[in-house]
Design a protein that fits this description.
The chain has 31 helices and 26 strands. It is α/β, with parallel strands linked by helices. Strand 1, helix 2 and strand 2 form a beta-alpha-beta unit. The longest helix has 18 residues. The chain is elongated and about 105 Å long. The two termini are about 25 Å apart.
C-alpha cells in the first residue's frame, strides 16, 4: 500500500527558528453537523490555540479558525480530494491528523512534513465493534496504522489508550504522549426547563446518558440495569440523549424490558437543552462496554456539577478516579443498577456538585494548548530530542549490559534530551533494571544457537550453518525497527551489530555501535574480525569503551569516540574490615578472567594457612557455556593447599557489599580487558586494586600511585603483589585512597552527556542527507 521507508523519513524543519509552527489540523465532520467527541475536541483545541487551522467537512458557516471544505454526505473521493487540496494549499509547518482517513493522502504526498496524530479512539476497532464489514475494518486498520506510525508524536487522551495504541500498532513508546483534554463550561443549565421538556415534575429523580447510539457505548447495558433501578425507585426517569444505528433496537429493548414509560429517547438535542438536562440530573451515566479513550461527556456533565457513574473500560476509571473511585463499576447490568440505586436512595451519594464543578474545570484548554505548542515545536525539530532504539544481543548481567544500564539510568535521572527504547534478543536482568527505571524495552527473539556463537568459531562454514537462524532474527528485527521508526538505532555489543547494522542500512537509519571487545583478541576468528571491521565502516559513529578498544578496531574517523563506562557506586566507602584480610575477585567466571591464576597465586603467596592469613572470595557466574571452567575453579579451590580458604559465591546482586567486605580486589584477566569496570568499582569503594597491565586498565590505574599492575598470567608477580599488600596495611590504605580519587573521574552519570551527544549528531546527520 505504501513505501515502508517513507514512514520513517525524518521531518524537515519548517518553522522559523524561535517562531510558533503553523499547524493545519485534519478533522472529520464539523461538530455542529455531527456531534461527537472527536469533533468537539478538535474544535475546542483549535479555539484555544492561535496557530491551528482546522479543516473539517461541514455545511454552515464554521467558527473562526475552522475551514469547511465539503458536505459530509459528498462522495468519499470528493471529500478526500477537497481535504487534501486544502492541506497542500496551506503548506503548514505541521500536519495534525485527528481523523486518519482524511489525513492519509496529505501524509503520503508530503512524506517529510512533520506529522502529529491524535488518537482519541481506534477508528478501525470502533467500526468493527459496530458490526462493520471485515474488509472495511482491514482497510481502516491499515490506514490508521500507517498514519500513526508516520507521526512524530501520537497524542492520546488517557494512559489507558496510550498503552492500547502502543500495543496494537507497535509504536515507539516515547512517540505516544498523554494529554487530557480541556473543557469550556457553558452557562448554567435550567433544571426546571429540562423537567418540563421531558414531562416530569421537580421531585422526579432524573438520570441522563448522552452517547452515540452504537453497540460499544453500552446503552443496552444501562437499559438492563434500569430494570433493577425502577424496582426500588419507581419514580426515577432515564433520559437517553443521542442518535445512531442502534436507536430502534434500544427502543425495542426498553419496551421488551417493560421500562419504556420511565425512559425518554430525546434524540439529538442542542447544547443549551443538554446543559439543562445535566443540571436536572441526579447523576449521569457512561456505560461503555469497549474502547473508551477518555469520555469528554464526563467533563461536560461535570461543568454543571453532575457526576457520572462509569464502567471500568478504557480511560474512564483513570479520569473519574481523580474525582471519586466509587463512581466506577463493572460493565454489567447488576453492578450498574446497584450503584445507581445507591445514588438515588442516598445510601451512596455522588460527590457534591461544587466539588464536581471544580474537578471538571481543572481540565483547562489553555494548558492543553500550551502542551500542544510544545509538541508541534518538537515535531519540526525532532533531533533536538532524538529517539533511539538500542539493541543488545544479551540481557545478562555482563559488562556491556551493566555499562548500558548505568548510562541510561543517568540519561533518565538527569533529564537529558534522549528518548530510548531497548530491544534485547533474550530476557534477563538487563530488562529488569530497565523496567525499574521506567525505560521501555522488549524482546525480539533470536535462536539461542546464534546468540551462543563463539568468537573463535565465526568462520564462513559456521556462518553458513547459522544462516537461517540469523536471517530469521534479522528479519524480525527489521520489521520491528520499521514499526518503531527511531531517529537513530544503536547496537550494544559486537553480536548485536551483525544484525543491527544491515537492518539500519536497509532503512537508511543512522547507526551507532557501542564497542566493548578487543578485536585483536587472538581467540577472534580472522573471518569474523574482517566482517566486524567491514560493519564498523558502515556505521554513522562508534563509541568505544577505551582507547585500547578503539585502536584494536583500527578506527580513526572523527565520529569514532571513546566514552569510558562508569562505576555504579552510590554510597560512601567504609573502612576496611578488621581482622583476617579478604581478597575478592568479581566478574564473570571465564577462563580469560583469570580465576585460576588468582588461586595459584594465593597458594604460592601463602602456602600454609596459619589461621590469620588471607581468604579469597570469587564472585560471579559463568555465561555462554562456561560452566566447565567453573567446575575447574571449584576443584582447585578444594585442593588441600587452599581448602577452607576460598569461597565461591556465584552471582551477587549487591556487589558493593562484596567490596566493603574485602581488603584487596584482584583483576587477573589473562587476555586484554577492553576496559575493566570491576577496577573502577573497587577503586570507588576505596579498596586497593591489583590488576593485569594490559587492555584498557592502564588507562585507569597508574602503577604504584592508585593501584598495582602486574603482567597478565604471571602467577609469581601476582603472588608477590598479594604478599606485599597483605603484609603492608599502610600501603593498602594509600593506594585505596588514591584509587578513590581516581574513580571520581568515572562517577555515575559522568559519561551520559557524551553518549547523548553522539546520538544527537548521528540523528542530525540523517537530515543532512
Amino acid at each position: 500500500m505504501v513505501d515502508r521507508e517513507a514512514r520513517c523519513e525524518t521531518a524537515e524543519p519548517q518553522a522559523p527558528e524561535g517562531g510558533a509552527p503553523r499547524v493545519v489540523a485534519i478533522g472529520a465532520d464539523a461538530f455542529t453537523d455531527r456531534p461527537g467527541g472527536l469533533g468537539r475536541y478538535a474544535q475546542d483545541l483549535t479555539a484555544a490555540s492561535s496557530t491551528i487551522t482546522l479543516i473539517v467537512l461541514g455545511r454552515g458557516d464554521p467558527p473562526a479558525g475552522i475551514i469547511g471544505v465539503s458536505r459530509p454526505d459528498a462522495p468519499l473521493v470528493d471529500r478526500i480530494t477537497r481535504v487534501t487540496r486544502e492541506v497542500l494549499r496551506a503548506d503548514p509547518d505541521v500536519v495534525d491528523v485527528h481523523f486518519a482517513l482524511y489525513g492519509l493522502l496529505p501524509v503520503l504526498l508530503r512524506p517529510r512534513r512533520p506529522v502529529v496524530a491524535h488518537h482519541q479512539g481506534p477508528w478501525a476497532e470502533e467500526s468493527h465493534s459496530g458490526r462493520g464489514s471485515p474488509s472495511r475494518y482491514g482497510a481502516r486498520d491499515l490506514i490508521e496504522r500507517f498514519v500513526l506510525r508516520r507521526a512524530h508524536t501520537v497524542v492520546t487522551l488517557s494512559d489507558a489508550f496510550r498503552d492500547h495504541v502502543i500495543d496494537r500498532h507497535g509504536l515507539f513508546p516515547a512517540r505516544v504522549v498523554t494529554v487530557p483534554p480541556g473543557v469550556t463550561c457553558p452557562p448554567a443549565g435550567d433544571p426546571h426547563r429540562a423537567r418540563s421538556l421531558i414531562g416530569v415534575d421537580d421531585g422526579t429523580p432524573v438520570v441522563v446518558v448522552a452517547r452515540r447510539l452504537v453497540a460499544r457505548t453500552g446503552v443496552d447495558i444501562l437499559l438492563r440495569a434500569w430494570v433493577g433501578v425502577v424496582e426500588s425507585e419507581p419514580a426515577a426517569h432515564l433520559v437517553v440523549v443521542g442518535e445512531g444505528p442502534e436507536e430502534k433496537s434500544l427502543r425495542d429493548l426498553a419496551a421488551e424490558l417493560g421500562v419504556e414509560a420511565t425512559v425518554t429517547f430525546a434524540g439529538r438535542v442542542s447544547d443549551a437543552v443538554l446543559a439543562d438536562l445535566w443540571a436536572a440530573a441526579e447523576v449521569a451515566v457512561v456505560p461503555t462496554r469497549a474502547l473508551e479513550g477518555f469520555g469528554l461527556v464526563l467533563l461536560e456533565a461535570g461543568c454543571h456539577g453532575t457526576a457520572s457513574v462509569v464502567t471500568d473500560v478504557g480511560g474512564l476509571p483513570e479520569v473519574v478516579g481523580r474525582l471519586s473511585p466509587d463512581l466506577v463499576v463493572r460493565a454489567d447490568p447488576r453492578s450498574l443498577a446497584v450503584r445507581l440505586r445507591g445514588v438515588l436512595d442516598g445510601s451512596s451519594p455522588p460527590p457534591e456538585r461544587g466539588i464536581v464543578r471544580a474537578w471538571a474545570r481543572s481540565y483547562d484548554w489553555s494548558s492543553v494548548a500550551l502542551r500542544h505548542s510544545e509538541i508541534y515545536r518538537q515535531a519540526v525539530n525532532p533531533t533536538a530530542r532524538p529517539r533511539a532504539v538500542i539493541v543488545s544481543h544479551s540481557a545478562a548481567a555482563g559488562g556491556a549490559e551493566i555499562a548500558l544500564s548505568r548510562t541510561l539510568a543517568a540519561v533518565r535521572a538527569n533529564g537529558l534530551p534522549l528518548d530510548v527504547h531497548v530491544i534485547a534478543f533474550e530476557d534477563g536482568p538487563l530488562l529488569r533494571s530497565l523496567d525499574a527505571m521506567g525505560i521501555s524495552n522488549e524482546v525480539v527473539e533470536v535462536e539461542r544457537r546464534a546468540l551462543d556463537l563463539d568468537r573463535s568459531a565465526a568462520d564462513s562454514a559456521t556462518a553458513a550453518a547459522l544462516g537461517p537462524a540469523l536471517a530469521t532474527g534479522g528479519l524480525r528485527l527489521l520489521r520491528r525497527l520499521r514499526s518503531l521508526c527511531p531517529d537513530v538505532v544503536a547496537a550494544n555489543g559486537f553480536k548485536s551489530g551483525g544484525l543491527v547494522i544491515p537492518a539500519a542500512a536497509l532503512m537508511r537509519l543512522p547507526v551507532v555501535w557501542h564497542l566493548h571487545v578487543d578485536l585483536e583478541d587472538p581467540s577472534m576468528h580472522p573471518t569474523g574480525r574482517r566482517v566486524l571491521r567491514s560493519l564498523a565502516a558502515l556505521t554513522t559513529a562508534t563509541i568505544a569503551n577505551s582507547d585500547f578498544t578503539r585502536m584494536s578496531w583500527g578506527l580513526d574517523r572523527d565520529v569514532d569516540v571513546v566514552v569510558h563506562p562508569v562505576h555504579g557506586r552510590t554510597r560512601s566507602a567504609v573502612p576496611e574490615p578488621i581482622g583476617r584480610p579478604t581478597i575478592a575477585m568479581v566478574g564473570r567466571i571465564s577462563p580469560w578472567k583469570g580465576q585460576l591464576v588468582l588461586l595459584e597465586a594465593l597458594a604460592r603467596a601463602f602456602p600454609r594457612d596459619d589461621g590469620e592469613g588471607p581468604r579469597a572470595a570469587i564472585v560471579g557466574a559463568p555465561l555462554f557455556g562456561e560452566d566447565p571452567y567453573l567446575d575447574a575453579v571449584r576443584a582447585r579451590a578444594s585442593e588441600p593447599d587452599l581448602a577452607g580458604r576460598v569461597t565461591i559465591t556465584g552471582f551477587v546482586d549487591d556487589v558493593d557489599a562484596v567490596y566493603d567486605a574485602a581488603s584487596i580486589v584482584v583483576h587477573a584477566s589473562t587476555d586484554p580487558e577492553p576496559f575493566g569496570q570491576v577496577v573502577i568499582e573497587a577503586m570507588a569503594a576505596r579498596r586497593a586494586v591489583i590488576s593485569t597491565a594490559h587492555g584498557g586498565v592502564p588507562e585507569i590505574i597508574t602503577d604504584g600511585i592508585d593501584g598495582t599492575l602486574v603482567d597478565p598470567g604471571d602467577v609469581n608477580a601476582l603472588a608477590d603483589a598479594l604478599r606485599r599488600l597483605v603484609n603492608d596495611q599502610q600501603l593498602r590504605m594509600r593506594l585505596a585512597a588514591a584509587g578513590e580519587r581516581r574513580a571520581a573521574d568515572f562517577a555515575p552519570g559522568s559519561n551520559a552527556g557524551a553518549v547523548v551527544e553522539v546520538y544527537r549528531r548521528a540523528a542530525e546527520s540523517r537530515r543532512r542527507r
